[in-house]
């Protein structure tokens, strides 16, 4: 039985608490959140204990692993302390908004050979994973083009977005990691964007729509399309085009019902609305991967360096957006 | 070049005129219709001549073949005369509403070894034909179940239906033939029906909805679902279920456009509206089959006996509807 | 918290144990199975206790409800005893293979105003339920035709089938109930069948394929297509056709991946394989319905009479199969 | 009746000959091709006359319009001569590979107020057109993102590609025009490419795969994905994403057949193989548009300037490919 402490009891914290709860070999030992009502809600729901301070949980020798689902600025500190205490860590993305700080963090912990997993849940989505496995198995020959469409149903609040680090570091970072999941090393990046969704996003100096183009080391072309708003629901699709075929992942519906009437045919209901619905199986598989890796003494994946590289891609995209040119990535 | 005379210039007559017009080896020599305006319209459109009487066309030695698209009660007479004059015949379904009359017709012409094709156009629909070919090729193993859904967009007029011979002889007859196209010999038939679409159909003593169940000689189960009205357009589908797979034919759209918005996803436009749209390629392939058979001195298919058997099935279905029991077919 | 005793620890028993385990307001107090290893497995997995005898569980005053997932011949006895002990009951289908015995059972317990729910899980499938709700809301106008396709991936064992009561009572019974879920009262039934899947089924005097046609009180036509074997997986579909539209339920895939290559396009993976996969959400919703009904002092649905009527339909179908004619149902 | 002269009897010339042949108000008066066998084939097939020289056709006062389907280097000269002779012109894309030459051509003919239509057939594809009409009607609100996937089944020959002007001027030019069809004015372009399909293309100094990103004047983001080879057939898709919905155009199949078996489900056959199949209706609608415009004394669209702008976009993309940066377009 792997015993977890959970830091951060917001929306994503609840997802992890739920994954721990239903996992047969996991136990939620402690929860902590600076907002006590948030901590209480999860503690009550899953019958666990609120830690009076993070150290109490980190120093508890019966705790094996820590899930960091707190505000981004706290990630590096919590991650460092947990690693020093010998705990395995599942840290939500991004590790930090500042790449230099991420690199300093790694310098501090690298010698400890830490078990750190970054919460890029989409790698564990059954559909994306199946495509990745089939590409690896050669089902479409050499991979040549990768298309990712990733649109949120609606923008987050002004407060959230103001602290988010911007579209690339907050939202596209998942797509950067997904691209790396398929392509491995990315050679260069180009990005362009627009403000068409909501004025307050422009006022924050951020974009709400983007297209990113990347090239992989073996000549693969990859592009990502983002929007902060999709009225028909969470739009999460992918196409892997290769020399001998194409594998695509479509959006997913809560039911398989279709309606035909006098004005249309075969209309489906709305898509699964957001990440809590679409990626529930992914979050559970992600946790299971960490637990299994710990049990078998292996490193989980994606690891710290994957979190680092996705952030480096976000920074490069931002540089490209401002400079209007291709930005080459340093060799990884 | 095969020269045709066309008898009957209504809706289905125009379809055949058009098929003849676009066929590179066919020519429309004469058209005839008791309603002169109907004949004029086709004659003008395709630059051909109105026959003053059917005999003029039938007796024209330069005419090779006759298309009978006139009112059902005229079929047997025209067919017989055309055969006696040595012409090939493409006769619209049904040959007649009276099975005894059909059998007498055959007795009169059989010795002439006539070239008679019955207009069961669905056998030439590219989708149905592909399924039939793949079934024949063993792609789904032994055929075990056949499901046919066949619904018209809207009921024909009271006048048309009053003379139609009823749902089974007028509409289901296409499905009976399609079933025979897949199963060959049918052993028994059961039919039930309902009046839910339009009161005037009940007043005519006819049904507007039906389910027919048939068994093939090799134990295949087949069912047909009919309705005289489908608000979302012409509903023409088929499933062939076998020991090692299933082949299905879905409805067809005029474009491949799909719409997703706040209330639905992936909604397609209306289906191809009716037989003129859905079966245009089938009608053309049907005519091409006849022409090719004539050129090669072979019998076209479906032939007279196929027309006879589909009518026999319609009669058996009607008997079953009234008797509430399975009706066995005589060995064919 | 509702405390359950579970009788029967086979495949379907495990499904219910799992539903109880994940339900936040349910607790598995006892399990019982004459095969002790089956009981142990569930007891160990869910941390509960094996009852030394059914009476121990039934007589436990802390037990609120009983799930009967044991062999069919034991249902009536267990149900009767549980009702007499004041327990709510969730009984798997069929109540019994003998309609007279079912009716006697009801006579014995009716005066106790029992809380009995029959395990027709498909009523709780999100897709079927959505269609039913939309039909009830008038989204397709008056319901005119209902098509149910229901095929198992592969036949059960000879032993299982020998005791199953035959295709109609064992397998079609789910479809009979689904038809009643949509149509309410059924007026008459016709059935035909075939033996094409497996010789041993014929040797048992049973059929392995069937088509059933039914009529509802308001003229609705309904047909069911069954097979004991579908190589492409569990085939569970439905179409509700009405005056102003059609709602359909398609099969469901484990992922939304599609493959296009040199020989085909848009190929999906296999369907969810069997009821454990396809109907997991349905089983959970079914249990939740019972629990909520108990909490609110209401009768759950489907109830005892629904179990009785589905069996009556199965008997009528069998009679029709042998007699080759429509069988009228007694008014319900 | 509009009388046409056709210059160029290759693959695309045959498409136009066929469109003229089936159009009720068009007539093919002359055909010309330097390769006489090519000219003969079309002349024989459609019963028309081979012009001994282009002037014979251009100077024929009974000729109303000229279709230029000859080799690209001949376009400007033929177009200029035809315009001077007072003929309407349908010129295949590109007008020329050299933008300066295109501009000089326009200077020479502009004063004649010529009727010139450029053969961007995709504007007449029923699916693309329907999406464009629905976008214009506001069905998806303000257009924000446009995704175009355009992949040929297989590379053309080395000879063809060597003279083609490169991927952007030869193949992407259709997508540039399609983007303009939706967006109107394009503000800037970025392009990147790869060589993964065929070595001989790299040897020609050309790319075989590309991603192009463009921005419209109103902030629309557009990207185009190209490949010279798609094993599953002609890949021609589009998504228009807007503030209140999304319209997409999928690939098209020759039949609506789907196959499910032990290894896959719902597999469709190959797509319509190439432009001759996919765009037959588009070519016919294109010709009909020209004829109708001529009859009504209106200018057809897309016109000369549309041909010019698509070429300017191709040049800008090429510049971007080499420079690795966004290239701004001059105001149009």
Give an overview of the whole structure:
- 4 copies of one chain form a homotetramer.
- Helices cover about 40% and strands about 25% of the residues of chain A.
- Chain A has about 325 residues and is α/β, with parallel strands linked by helices.
- In chain A, α1 packs across α11 and α8 (about 165-185) packs across α12.
- The first copy, chain A, is globular and about 55 Å long.
- The model of chain A has no long low-confidence stretch (mean pLDDT about 95).
- Chains in contact: A-B, A-C, A-D, B-C, B-D, C-D.
- At the A-D interface, β7, β8, β9 and β10 of A face β7, β8, β9 and β10 of D.
What is the count of DSSP helices of chain A, taking H or I runs of 4+ residues? 12
- Percentage of residues in DSSP E strands of chain A: 25-35%
Arithmetic mean pLDDT of chain A = 96
Strand order of the largest sheet of chain A: 12-11-7-10-9-8-15
Radius of gyration of chain A: 20 Å
Helix and strand element order of chain A: EHEHEHEHEHEHEHHEHEEEEEEHHHE
Total beta strand runs of chain A: 15
Q: Looking at the structure, what is the overall shape of chain A?
A: globular
Terminal-residue CA separation of chain A = 36 Å
- Sheet/helix structural class of chain A: alpha/beta
Most extensive interface: pair and counts?
A-D, 38 and 38 residues
